[in-house]
Design a protein that fits this description.
By secondary structure, the chain is mostly beta strands. 9% of the residues lie in helices and 51% in strands.
Length: 179
């Protein structure tokens, strides 16, 4: 007679916690250099190089009851330090696919959101740089609809930092929607 005591695999499964702490991520960086070998009567001959941009980032996820994705990216450009990308993102079960809060690019275009390492040149194209908004602190919700096939994003953001390129307006708030 078993008085309410479970045995075997059922007891072992019940003894294990239902939620487990997990942490996974990556650390990386990039270094952009300008350099050249100069020759000529008006120039100082020789090899010259300069660091144009240095970036350090970490991204991944951490969780216990629910998973939180994160990213932190710092950059050194023209002897100034920038916080390029910093956010926490969640994937709730209802209404939206992702909710993101932090300091990031608004959802304007695929080219503006593309990684600088995916470009042939270090700078964005002039039209993209002229109209793409800069990084701003904000809250963003995004989703995907299967029928009809489309994606959407809504972004509510505050004032950002000074940008080296792009539209860095001084408006205190910005609302961006993309469909």
């Amino acid at each position: 007679l078993d008085a309410g005591k479970e045995s075997g695999a059922e007891a072992q499964q019940e003894a294990e916690p239902r939620h487990r702490f997990h942490l996974k991520g990556r650390v990386g960086g990039s270094l952009y250099l300008d350099g050249g070998l100069l020759r000529g009567s008006a120039l100082d001959n020789g090899l010259r190089a300069a660091i144009r941009r240095a970036r350090l980032y970490t991204s991944g996820e951490i969780g216990y009851w629910f998973t939180t994705e994160y990213k932190f990216e710092f950059s050194l450009e023209r002897k100034r330090i920038f916080l390029n990308d910093f956010y926490f993102r969640w994937r709730p079960d209802r209404w939206v696919d992702t909710v993101k809060i932090g300091y990031f690019d608004p959802p304007m275009s695929l080219q503006a959101l593309g990684s600088s390492s995916a470009r042939g040149l270090m700078e964005s194209a002039a039209p993209v740089a002229a109209f793409a908004p800069g990084f701003r602190a904000g809250l963003q919700a995004a989703g995907i609809v299967a029928d009809p096939s489309l994606t959407w994003a809504l972004d509510f953001a505050s004032l950002g930092q000074e940008q080296t390129v792009g539209n860095a307006s001084t408006d205190p708030l910005r609302f961006v929607g993309r469909l």
